[in-house]
Structures are given as C-alpha cells and as structure tokens.
Amino acid sequence: MAIPKAMRYLAGATCLIFIFLLVTLYRTDPTAIKLPTIKPGNGAPKPAAKGALEPGDRPQGWDHDPQQDPSGEPPEPLHRVNGDNYAPDNANSDRINATLLSLVRNEELDDMLQSMQDLESTWNHKFNYPWTFFNDVPFTKEFKEKTSAATKAKTHYHTIPKEHWEIPSWINKDLYTESKKMLSEKGVQYSEMDSYHQMCRWNSGVFYKHPALEKVQYYWRVEPKVHFFCGVDYDVFRYMQDHNKTYGFTLTLLDSPDSVATLWPETMKFLADHPEYEAKNNAKGFLTEEKEKGHNKITNGYSTCHFWSNFEIANLDLWRSPAYTQYFDHLDKAGGFFYERWGDAPVHSVAVGLFEDKSRVHWFRDIGYQHIPFFNCPNNGKCKGCEAGRFTDGEDWLNSQDCRNVWFKHAGMEA
C-alpha cells in the first residue's frame, strides 16, 4: 500500500531533524573543555607509594592530561582593556571591588617580588588591581618600598591583630604539645611549627575579619615563590561576578589523612545540627569518593581531595555567610587547627563542596600556575615557561596526588 505523500514528507523532515540533532550533539569544538578518554586497563588510581610509573601512564586513568588539549578563554562576557578603562589613576575605572591578597613575612621579600613580577607581567599590568599585604609583625620600610615599586597599582600593608593570630585561649597547651609530637612521628609536614597552625587557622576563617577587608568583595590569593606563565587578557574578577562564580581554583590534590583525621566527623556533627546548609547541587562526592586507598578509613569518610588554596579567587561573601561563619566557629572550638593540622585548603574545600552549588565553582584552566612541585599548564598559545599538560616536575609518584579526575567526575569540566 502506498504511503501518503504528506506522511513521506513528515518522515523525511523527522529524519533531517534527527540527523541535525546528532551533528549538533557530537560536533566538537577543538578548544572546548573535554575529558580525556579512559585508557584501557588503566581505570584505577595507583597508590601514592614511591615507585616509577610507566612512561606516559596517568594514575587518573586518562590517556593524556586534559591540559594537553588546545584551550582558550572562558565564555563571554569578558571585560578587557579598552583605552584607559583600567588605568591605575582612573577613579572611574572598570575595576570592581577586589584585591590581590598576600600573607607574607618581611624575610620573604625576594620570593614575593618574584610572584608579583610574574602576575604583573601576565595580567595585572593591564588591570591594575590593588595589592593587600598582611603580616603578623609590621612590614619593614624595605618591603614596602620594593613591593610598591613592583606595580603601578596601589599597595596596602596591614599588621594582623594579635587576637586574630595568637593560639586561642581554649586550646589545651599540654594536649597541643603532645599532639604536635604524635603528628610529627606520623610524618605530618610542619606539624611542630606553631606559626603554621596559626597561619592555617587565620587563612581558614579569620583573614576576612580584618578591617582592611571589611568592604572588599573579591580576592585573589598570591603566595611568595609562585609562578604565573600565561597571558590573561580579561578581568578575572569581573568574570567571577558576571558568571555568578564564588570560588576559583587551578589545582586540586590529596592531603595527608593524618593531618585531618577528625575534620570529617566534626563536619558531620555540624551538618547534623544544620542540615539546611547543605546545598542541593553540591559536590559531596568529590569529598567522599576514595581516591587513595586507606585515606577514607583514617579520616572516617573524607577522601582528602581539596582545592590547593595557595591559589584561590573567591567572593568573600562565601566566607561571610551564616553557613561558613557557624561552620568555622564549630571547627575552631573543636581545636583541630592545633590538635591536628587542619589546613585552610581542606577546610575551604569541604565547605565549598557541601555548602555551595558546584556550578558556582570554576577551574581556571587558562591561568598557568606553579606552586612547587605542581603545575597548571594549559595549551593555549599564551604561555611561556611551562609544558602543556605537565602536572609535576617532582618524582613520578606525585602524579597520583592529582584529584582533578574526581572533581571532573562529580562537577564536570565546564564549571
């Protein structure tokens, strides 16, 4: 029986639409972020024990590092230099309420100047955002003169109030002394340094309470002795604002499980009292999927994956929120910044992973960065001095410390 002409037209149109949708779905932009394919037989992470990996092997199970793929800038809108709209002396510039932020000692001056030189040459000489420096003692005249000479932007220097830096009164000093000794015996790095514990606590939940940051909206944390490799031609703070992002990172790694053994149980206690703070579209799986065998057992459920916070670009309202304010207060009273070695990286990461919508967290793929011994090196034609796709220039086993594959699995690569 002959098929009516109208039905034949309808069937033909349906086929054309189907083909169009398939082409649209599978068409690949060569600069789009895409997850590498899983290498056959290499789907499981390798343990972090020392031992050479096979040439080209990836503990993440990838056939290659995603940073080897050509990439470009994040999506528009992007704000760029146009005439004098970002000139340092322009009172009506396009800059928003943001600062570059550094906690640094006077004796780290040379290392700080190196970090400034890199970031100024790759980005800030175009946008002229101010630098804000913090120290637990007053900055020297030399430090102020040399850092202010390293930028056309404004520079600000602040001493941390003693009540923000000193070990809190509720910390049992005998228990703290014994805890430091035990952590050291377990090989937890910096565990016997009081200043390191104090720094981790300050960076976790005290820094933004300084009066100098009271009215600041965004910050980009910059540490001494880091490197920036790639030209960035857009205002990253405006990107965060325009795209509703609250937290930006470049690297995500495993932590020492012994340093955070009780962080997850304390977090679960807090959530039991405040279930309303857990975001619906969160990244809890990033925090709980076991990447390194044995970590979750030591930590009672935490994978130890975290954003490496020596680089972070964030909206300060994230830390000022009731959820984080109460969470930090809970952790602070629990004492883990001193009885263990809770760092600002895992504390910030757990909070972001649980309290924030994961779509508001952004991987700055295009910002080439190094903090010894790890790299974020994109393949975008604007980079000098780092090899695209290189994750570390240290021993091979350090490749197993990369948590990007876990983040991409639970949050995607487009965020």
3D architecture notes:
The chain has 415 residues and is an alpha/beta fold. It has one domain (82-411): Spore Coat Polysaccharide Biosynthesis Protein SpsA, Chain A. 36% of the residues lie in helices and 10% in strands. It contains 15 helices and twelve strands. It has helices at 5-26, 109-127, 141-149, 162-165, 173-185, 194-205, 236-242, 263-273, 284-288, 295-299, 317-320, 322-334, 336-339, 344-355, 404-411, and strands at residues 98-103, 131-135, 155-159, 218-221, 227-228, 247-249, 252-253, 306-307, 312-315, 361-363, 369-371, 374-376. The strands form three sheets. Strands 3-2-1-4-9-6-10 form a seven-stranded mixed sheet. The protein has a three-stranded antiparallel sheet with strand order 5-11-12. Strand 2 (131-135), helix 3 and strand 3 form a beta-alpha-beta unit. Helix 6 (194-205) packs parallel to helix 14 (344-355) and helix 8 (263-273) packs across helix 12 (322-334). The longest helix has 22 residues, at 5-26. The radius of gyration is 24 Å and the shape is globular. The N and C termini lie far apart (54 Å). The model is unreliable at 19-33 and 40-57 (pLDDT under 50). This is Glycosyl transferase. One of its GO terms (molecular function) is alpha-1,2-mannosyltransferase activity.
Short summary of the structure?
The chain has 415 residues and is α/β, with parallel strands linked by helices. It contains 15 helices and twelve strands. Mean pLDDT is 90; it is low at 19-33 and 40-57.
